[in-house]
Amino acid sequence: MSALLEVEGLETAYGSSQVLFGVDFSIRQGEVATLLGRNGMGKTTTVRSLLGLTPARAGVVRFRGERIEALAPDRIARMGLAVVPEGRQIFPNLTVRENLLAFASHRNAAADPWTLERVYALFPGLAARASNMGGQLSGGEQQMLAIGRALMTNPLLLILDEATEGLAPLVREEIWHCLDTLRAQGQTILVIDKYVRRLLRLADRHTIIERGAVVWRGGSEALAADPSLWQRYIGV
Q1: How would you write 115-140 as a 3-class SS string?
Q2: What CATH number was assigned to the domain covering residues 1-80+188-236?
Q3: How far is the C-alpha of 212 from the C-alpha of 18, rounded, in Å?
Q4: What are phi and psi of 56, to 5 degrees?
Q5: What is the pTM of this model?
Q6: Which of 31, 57, 115, 125 is most buried, with most CB under 10 Å away?
Q7: Which residues contact 118 (CB under 8 A, 6 or more apart)?
Q8: Which of 12, 63, 71, 72 is nearest to 42 (CA)?
Q9: What is the pLDDT of residues 29-76, one digit of tens each?
Q10: Euclidean distance between CA atoms 204 and 31, whole angstroms
């Protein structure tokens, strides 16, 4: 099966400070993949480069077989990439319903596209808070709204950057359950998170980044069998 996303030799810098050094990985359609590593090792910069927010200095990024590393962020988004960013970044002065509808788009021609009703079924708490302003929601509710907002674009690839960071355990488990549901529905997902044990159950393949370079890649079985990788590169 050909890859939905292919990243080859990705290099990115902020001014004269290089952050990524030849990052390589790929994600197939319907697969759940992860980017792992300690804070400050280049995971979010990788995501920003995929989305065109921090343009690549070198390397190739292909999405659906088309090179996108030189495209503008809005064009990349219209091709079917959606991100749940670190920090949520919802609109505090729009209602839950307005936050969702503001991003509604049928980008992947799915037979059963994401709608308000489907998002509310995935996160019933949002339905109960539909008329509340985004700024009135709890942190967990805001995270659910951020995921729902991304799904409303009907993405081919959903990227989640620290989606469970700072959440209470029960809310965090609700997010994991949501991702399990999306995987079962065939959604292609890239996850950045620190809860390796939970990611082992969710994801097919993992890529570990250390100081802007890939130091390990493999499946969940191989990662589970070598906890020394967790200590060395993830800090678990």
Answers
A1: CHHHHHHHCHHHHHCCCCEHHHCCHH
A2: 3.40.50.300
A3: 9
A4: -70, 145
A5: 0.93
A6: 31
A7: 112, 151
A8: 12
A9: 999 999 999 999 999 999 999 999 999 999 999 999 999 999 999 999
A10: 6
